[in-house]
Design a protein that fits this description.
The chain is 43% helix and 17% strand. By secondary structure, it is an alpha+beta fold. It is globular, with a radius of gyration of 15 Å. The two termini are 21 Å apart.
Length: 109
């Protein structure tokens, strides 16, 4: 990535209009499901999700989302800090960065 690319990314990452538009256009399912998260249920508080690899049978859910709001994870079994709210944009960036690193490592052999 060139310095110009980094500058463009930094500008977008700190642009509230871009982040808000992304949150409005993107569902939590579009962000979480491709990474193995499982939707459990929806109630008045929001959507309850389980992270990949976690099977607790009858569970209350390890994370809670609100449609245009934030993801809050309640477990320490993920790479997210427990009880710290994350925006849709922040979660997408974290997940995308992790995928890019895994692809790079796989390609390097």
């Amino acid at each position: 990535m060139t310095n110009t690319d980094k500058d463009k990314f930094t500008t977008i990452a700190h642009d509230d209009d871009f982040r808000n538009n992304y949150a409005f256009r993107t569902t939590w399912a579009e962000i979480l499901k491709p990474h193995g998260w499982v939707f459990l249920r929806s109630d008045t508080r929001g959507e309850h999700w389980e992270p990949p690899g976690r099977t607790g049978g009858h569970t209350r859910g390890a994370a809670l989302t609100r449609e245009h709001g934030l993801l809050t994870v309640f477990t320490t079994s993920t790479k997210f800090e427990a009880r710290t709210p994350y925006s849709k944009f922040d979660v997408s960036i974290r997940k995308s960065r992790g995928e890019a690193v895994r692809r790079r490592v796989s390609a390097d052999g």
